[in-house]
Automatic annotation (TrEMBL):
Protein name: Diaminopimelate decarboxylase
Catalytic activity: meso-2,6-diaminopimelate + H(+) = L-lysine + CO2
Top-rank taxon: Bacteria
Species whose genome carries this gene: Enterococcus durans
Name of the gene this protein is made from: lysA
GO molecular function ontology, one term from the record: pyridoxal phosphate binding
Cofactor(s) needed by this chain: pyridoxal 5'-phosphate
Length: 415
């Protein structure tokens, strides 16, 4: 087969139907990943819940899929909450995150029935207390802790980042005050503790250290609380990435937590994790059309019809991706090229250096593993139009987000 297929559809058919740039999600891959998480993340000792960190990719269709598999949801803003409500996501399964939720966002969430909040700081707990009284509603609060562990892809650092903008140190006065407010409150209920130690992690050891920390804090409580370990499971962007097998690694998180609790003679209500990238990342492919091809003294450029506006990650994090000329899979990769976008910014490069076949203008270029933080971090810089999103499965494609039009660009302008 010399042409790339996604969801049993040749990509040239998708391009003919939806144009480029195009975000394509392989629905079966999404489902298989969710199933692997669910399969592994189970315990005989406590409840388990997987919250999808929807900042990675949030659309109504995606949330419907998340609900279909009975996952919960992590939202971080009024906008993500609104989208979840429009998707009719069960409100009791939504956990509201964020270090600076505004009073309006909190009111909007409470008025719409959300009742799980992950509080970042003491002031937030105070405000939640006031709002819970005003609305006369019970609110479950998880405290976001900074456990002093910073996980990187292959290593982790202890006592790192104690000045992070996220969470509180358990030992801090602020945290103890926050806990007291909850204890004295008639409407706030302490649900437990949350921590998130990093992203694109390939090592179990960082999580195990996190579990040790979180479990140790439980000693101070008679109530049976819940723990949330955050997200951060790494994915394969390039062949240099060796992600942990999902089912096995989440199983290990459960069994390690069971052991740690047993040693301490304690139990928990529920263990939670919040994967984002790992659920959607590898299921997404971006299709571009090659436009002009240009040679400079030391480089050869293949220009594509999108770039940093649909995928900011290379420019922002020097993130690396792999790609193919999607209808020339069998051709020799004889050309050393830079794949660059069309935006007015030198840093607008999709892939710094890769080998591809000889391209012609009009060829389709597929960039793999773009499903996380691509669409969700897209922008209209240069008044680029946000691409369409399609889901494909079993030879059928479904439009999930239509491509923006020029009139969309002026929608909010007062003319
Ligand atoms: N939970 C919390 C509290 C988080 O802050 C995050 C991500 C997640 C869960 C999900 O993490 P994941 O499983 O997706 O790694 N824009 C960056 C990633 C920022 C992640 C922020 N927090 C990127 O494109 O790499």
């Amino acid at each position: 087969m010399s042409e790339l297929m996604i969801g049993e559809i040749p990509v040239s058919q998708l391009v003919a139907k939806y144009q480029t740039p195009l975000y394509v999600y392989d629905e079966k891959k999404l489902e298989d990943t969710i199933k692997a998480f669910k399969q592994g993340f189970q315990s005989d000792h406590f409840k388990t819940k997987i919250l999808y960190a929807s900042k990675a990719f949030q659309t109504v269709e995606m949330l419907k899929l998340i609900e279909k598999y009975d996952l919960g949801l992590d939202v971080v803003s009024g906008g993500e909450t609104y989208t979840a409500l429009r998707a009719e996501f069960p409100v009791e399964e939504i956990y509201f995150h964020g270090n600076n939720k505004t009073p309006d966002e909190l009111r909007f969430a409470i008025e719409n029935g959300l009742n799980h909040f992950i509080a970042d700081n003491e002031m937030e707990v105070e405000l939640l207390d006031a709002l819970s009284q005003e609305y006369n509603k019970k609110i479950h609060v998880m405290i976001r802790l900074n456990v002093g562990i910073e996980a990187h892809t292959h290593e982790y650092i202890v006592t790192a980042h104690i000045d992070s903008k996220f969470g509180m140190l358990y030992e801090s006065e602020a945290c103890q005050k926050a806990l007291n407010i909850i204890q004295d409150s008639e409407q706030l209920l302490l649900e437990g503790f949350h921590a998130h130690i990093g992203s694109q992690i390939f090592e179990m050891s960082a999580w195990l250290a996190e579990i040790d920390k979180l479990v140790s804090y439980l000693q101070d409580f008679d109530d049976v609380l819940s723990l949330n370990l955050g997200g951060g499971f790494g994915i394969r962007y390039t062949e240099n990435d060796a992600p942990l097998p999902i089912e096995k690694s989440v199983q290990e998180l459960v069994s390690y937590t069971e052991e740690a609790l047993k040693k301490q003679g304690q139990t928990i209500q529920q263990l939670m994790i919040e994967p984002g990238r790992s659920i959607v990342g590898e299921a997404g492919t971006t299709l571009y059309t090659v436009g002009f091809i240009k040679e400079t003294p030391h480089k050869k450029y293949y220009f594509v019809d999108g770039g940093m506006t649909d995928n900011i990650r290379p420019a922002l994090y020097q993130a690396e991706y792999t790609c193919d000329l999607a209808t020339k899979l069998q051709s020799e990769k004889s050309e050393k090229v830079t794949v660059a976008g069309k935006m007015c910014e030198s840093g607008d490069v999709v892939i710094q250096e890769t080998y591809l076949p000889v391209a012609e203008s009009g060829d389709i270029l597929a960039v793999y593993a773009t499903g996380a933080y691509g669409y969700s971090m897209s922008s209209n810089y240069n008044r680029a139009l946000t691409p369409a999103v399609v889901f494909v499965k079993d030879g059928v494609s479904k439009i999930v987000v239509r491509r923006q039009s020029y009139t969309d660009l002026l929608r909010s302008e007062v003319l």
